[in-house]
Amino acid sequence: MPTANTRRLTFWAPLVLIAGAGIAILFRPVAVPVDLATVERNSIRVTVTDEGETKVKDVFVVSSPVPGLMRRIELEAGDPVTAGVTIVASIEPSDPLFLDVRTQAESQAAVRAAEAAEKYAAAQVRRAEAELDFAAAELKRYEGLASRNTVSENELDAARRRAKTSTAALEESKANLNVRGSELEQARARLMTPSLSRNNRGEDCECVKTYSPVSGAVLRVLRESEGVVTSGTPLVEVGDPRKLEIHVDLLSTDAVQVEAGQRALIEAWGGNKPLEGVVTRVEPFGFTKISALGIEEQRVNVRIDLVDPPEQWARLGHGYRVEPRIVLAETDDVLTVPRSALFRDGDSWSTFVAEDDVAVMRHVELGLGNAFDAEVVSGLSAGEQVVLQPSDRVQEGSRLKPRS
């Protein structure tokens, strides 16, 4: 017959076993749901990118060569132009301005002085002509006497010298008369007043024609309506749209990695696929630019030439927005791991590898990398699965539960 101890053991033993099993189930480690990615061999590309703008390489600004009344410009943006043939603008030179009372009095006095100087110069010419007539008659008389040996050779030479001197004096006085005549014309020109009537618009004006300096197209009309312009007023911008380049302002920390000859991919330009380009120049002069957040940034202008035929980007024009992606380095068939699976463990890069649904921390050595992937030099093998964006619940030895 069972004893009391046996009966107690028989009663409590199952209860203790059930309680122990329940506690074990309650406190056993719970599997952490995670996202996994497979380590594979892929190509990797390191790039820098920013917003850029297309620009015609050589933009020519046609300006007014003279002050005057510019006729309305009939050209519109996009119209073709031919160098030295297409008339960009016609400018009728302006009339002189009205004179104030003092300036008019001074100009009238200058005219009277110029008229007096011209009369004096004319008198000098008449005097020189009389002197020349006398010297010529004297020379003729001395030559007749010399033929009869009546005068000496010295006296004949003196007569010839006086004749030549009189001739030179006459030419000098005539030149002085021309100078005085020009001064009189200038003095009278200062008294000219604006004309009260203009040429009929139906008639041809005596206009200065301004021609396009290059063949291409009109990019922008800066001054369209008829009006008075000064010398040097910008009128029209012209250029060749087939000669496009791309300007992109990179942060100076990115620009130091860029050099001429590097490949560039032109994205977000409106086409179905990126355009090919090549970096032609990294300008040596940086400038300060305020970002949208109000932060001062040092920027450097980088120029990119399009490599694809113009037919593929014919719809692009001057000042269009694009997104160039400059390739700093690229390689094919390397082991890659997603950036979101990496974290710092001291001075090393690490990742959690899922081995039989258990997290194992692995140190890795990286090579090339971009914002999405990194090249694995050592520490991982192709086909292994790593944890993406591991939370603080994932530790060494944690049980993992892959999300579906």
Summarize the structure.
By secondary structure, this protein is of the alpha+beta class.
- How many helices? The count is 4
DSSP strand content: 35-45%
Largest sheet, spatial ordering of strands: 3-12-15-14-13-16
* Helix content range: 25-40%
Determine the N-to-C terminus distance: 59 Å
Give the biggest sheet: 6 strands, antiparallel, barrel
Q: Can you tell me the residue ranges where pLDDT is under 50 for at least 5 consecutive residues? A: none
Order of helices and strands: HEEEEEEEHHEEEEEHEEEEEEEEEE
Give the tally of β-strands: 22
Q: Globular, elongated, flat, extended or rod-shaped: what is the shape? A: rod-shaped
The Cα radius of gyration reads: 48 Å
Oligomer: single chain
Structural class: alpha+beta
Structure description:
With 404 residues, the protein is α+β, with helices and mostly antiparallel strands. It is built from 4 helices and 22 strands. A hairpin with a 3-residue loop joins β19 (358-369) and β20. The longest helix is centred in the N-terminal third of the chain and has 47 residues, at 101-147. The chain starts with a helix and ends with a strand. The model has no long low-confidence stretch (mean pLDDT 86).
